[in-house]
Design brief:
Elements: E1 5-10, E2 16-20, E3 28-30, H1 33-47, E4 50-54, E5 60-65
Parallel strand pairs: 1-4
Antiparallel strand pairs: 1-2, 2-3, 4-5
Length: 77
């Protein structure tokens, strides 16, 4: 079963988008990255998904698991 993800990605017209993994359209658009991260983290927590933050060049900056980690740490079973 594929894991559920939410991503913070740069928008080609400026600003940042919150997107569901595999989705073409954004859930919401923000001018500032931190606003997108805060909103996206809440969505990810509510959906129990992986949360992936991208840099301006599109590479992954950081990721966090909110219940959908396929390989949880041994101390967090």
């Amino acid at each position: 079963m594929p894991r559920k993800t939410h991503h913070i990605v740069p928008n080609s017209d400026g600003g940042w988008d919150v997107k569901k993994g595999g989705g073409q359209r954004s859930i919401k658009h923000f001018d500032k990255k931190q606003e997108a991260v805060d909103y996206g983290r809440n969505v990810s927590r509510n959906q129990n998904s992986e949360f992936v933050i991208h840099k301006q060049d599109g590479t992954i900056q950081n990721s966090d698991s909110h219940g959908g980690d396929p390989c949880p740490p041994k101390d967090k079973k």
